[in-house]
Amino acid sequence: MLKSLYDWTIRMADSRHALWALALVAFVESSFFPIPPDLLMIPMIIAAPHRAFLIAGVAMAASVAGGMLGYGIGYFAFDSIGQPILEHLGKADSMAEFNGKFNDAGFWAVLIAGVTPFPYKVITIMSGWTAMPLGTFIVTSIIARGLRFFIIAGLLWKFGEPIRDFIEKRLGLVMTLFCVVLIGGFFLVKFL
What we know:
VTT domain-containing protein; 192 residues; mainly alpha; DedA_domain; VTT_dom
């Protein structure tokens, strides 16, 4: 089933409905869909680099809107919908401990999950479950998803096909390292 979802996502990149498909994939990926919108964005931008930032904007807006659905799942329907999704992702065991610490670091959790390969859907559901302030969640999601999608769009717009391999294989690592350095810098400033 996952292979057929992946194949559908890639086929949609060549469709005249590609922007709508991207919006749908970005929306549902933020709360339950397993395929990241990057897989659709990359071939779309390579095919039409002049639309790179429009494509990134659609992905960001739809992803943030989908994140609000994930937030709603966590807030209103955690026991019936959110918990089974997290159990399926293998995150159920650490939920109680995570809940106690989450809102203290909520901004950072959403930011990190939004730009790294960590499943953003887990954070959206957990944000609702722990009742993170909705404004904090939305603003941080816009920043995080904007960074992720506009960096990809910018790299593809500037370098085209040659940067594709880097994005697909190493961008997640680079973004994770960026977050580690960013957080480390804040801790250094705070404690020095």
